[in-house]
Specification:
There is one protein chain. The chain is of the alpha/beta class. Strands 3-2-1-6-7-8 form a six-stranded mixed sheet, sandwiched between helices.
Length: 172
C-alpha cells in the first residue's frame, strides 16, 4: 500500500453540521494537519454565530465567516433571475448556485493561509461535491481538493481527470 499523503494545512468548507464537525479531528488524526475552517454567509443569518465556538471545540485552528451576500445577490441571483433560469421548468435555483462563489472564497483563503488542500463535507449523493471540486480546481490548480467518500470519510481526490467520479466505500 502506498504511503498516505500528509498535509500541513487544510481549509475546510465548514457548515457546523455533523459531517464537517467530525471531519476536523479526523483530518488532524489521519493527515497530521492543521485545519482552518470557512463558513459562507449567503443569507442564512444568525445560524452562523455559534460556529466559532463549535469549530474551536472540534479542533479547528480558526474559522472565517465570510459575508458573501452582496456578491451573491449582484453576481449570481440577479443574473439568474434575468436569465429566467428555472430547473425542470418549475424550480428556481437555490443554494446550489452559491457553491462556485463559496469555492472562489475558499481558494482565496486557502492561498492566504498557505493551505495545501481544500476539503468539504458534501456527500456523493448530490451535485454539491462536483460544484465545489470543479470550481476549486479551476481557480487553484496547486491545491488538492478533498471530498467525502461514500464511507463518510474525507480523502484526497486521486483522479487525474477533471471529470468527477464516485468514491468507493471500503465496505463494498
Amino acid at each position: 500500500m502506498a504511503d498516505k499523503k500528509t498535509y500541513k494545512r487544510v481549509l475546510l468548507a465548514y457548515s457546523g453540521g455533523l459531517d464537517t464537525s467530525i471531519i476536523i479531528p479526523w483530518l488532524k488524526e489521519n493527515y497530521g494537519c492543521a485545519v482552518v475552517c470557512c463558513a459562507a454567509d449567503v443569507g442564512q443569518g444568525e445560524e452562523l454565530a455559534p460556529l466559532h465556538e463549535k469549530a474551536k471545540k472540534t479542533g479547528a485552528e480558526k474559522l472565517y465567516i465570510e459575508d458573501l451576500r452582496k456578491e451573491f445577490v449582484e453576481d449570481f441571483i440577479w443574473p439568474t433571475l434575468k436569465a429566467d433560469a428555472i430547473y425542470e421548468g418549475k424550480y428556481l435555483l437555490g443554494t446550489s448556485f452559491a457553491r462556485p462563489l463559496i469555492a472562489k472564497r475558499l481558494v482565496e483563503i486557502a492561498e492566504k493561509e498557505g493551505c495545501d488542500a481544500i476539503c468539504h463535507g458534501c456527500t456523493g449523493k448530490g451535485n454539491d461535491q462536483v460544484r465545489f471540486e470543479l470550481s476549486s480546481r479551476r481557480l487553484r490548480r496547486t491545491c488538492r481538493s478533498s471530498r467525502r467518500g461514500a464511507s463518510g470519510i474525507s480523502r484526497p481526490a486521486k483522479r487525474k481527470s477533471s471529470m468527477p467520479t464516485r468514491a468507493a466505500s471500503p465496505s463494498r
